[in-house]
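Quick review question:
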């Protein structure tokens, strides 16, 4: 009886072992299938991100760059454009009265005495003699009014002394 009991035990172990192996194989197959479904196809990569082939997680484009959907890499913003946040799907053109010196920084206003009337610029132009800018981020220079003079285009006009009138013709 002991032998048959032992024999049954071996037989049961072998049957249990086979069932365990089959169950393990089924679980591995399911896990592998789920993992493949979880992996991201690069064509599904969202705009503002780039995806390494079969990567699980899209990676946001850094500030100063952008991407369309399905991108494998980010594209730097062109000169005169900027993108200050990670994960951008586009770059913004630098507005009038401002300059964009670095694509990952916000636009800087043109300082007093300078102006910029065009979009997408990297430099502000100085005001000519007889003109000034009343504020930063100016899109044009203002002519010095009659009865005043403008020794510095970065300062407001100064009144002439009584009896003196300086006039600068507009060019």
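Suggested answer, residue by residue:
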């Amino acid at each position: 009886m002991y032998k048959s009991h032992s024999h049954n035990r071996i037989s049961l172990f072998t049957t249990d072992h086979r069932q365990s192996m089959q169950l393990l194989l089924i679980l591995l197959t399911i896990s592998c299938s789920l993992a493949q479904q979880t992996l991201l196809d690069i064509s599904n990569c969202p705009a503002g991100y780039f995806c390494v082939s079969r990567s699980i997680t899209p990676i946001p484009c850094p500030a100063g760059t952008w991407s369309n959907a399905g991108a494998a890499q980010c594209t730097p913003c062109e000169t005169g454009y900027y993108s200050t946040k990670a994960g951008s799907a586009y770059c913004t053109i630098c507005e009038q009265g401002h300059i964009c010196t670095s694509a990952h920084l916000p636009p800087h206003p043109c300082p007093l005495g300078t102006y910029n009337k065009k979009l997408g610029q990297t430099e502000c132009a100085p005001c000519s003699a007889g003109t000034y800018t009343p504020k930063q981020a100016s899109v044009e220079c203002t002519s010095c009014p009659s009865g005043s003079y403008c020794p510095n285009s970065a300062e407001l006009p100064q009144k002439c002394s009584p009896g003196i009138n300086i006039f600068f013709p507009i060019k």
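Why it works: The first strand starts at residue 49 and ends at 50. Confidence is low (pLDDT under 50) at residues 1-13, 31-39.
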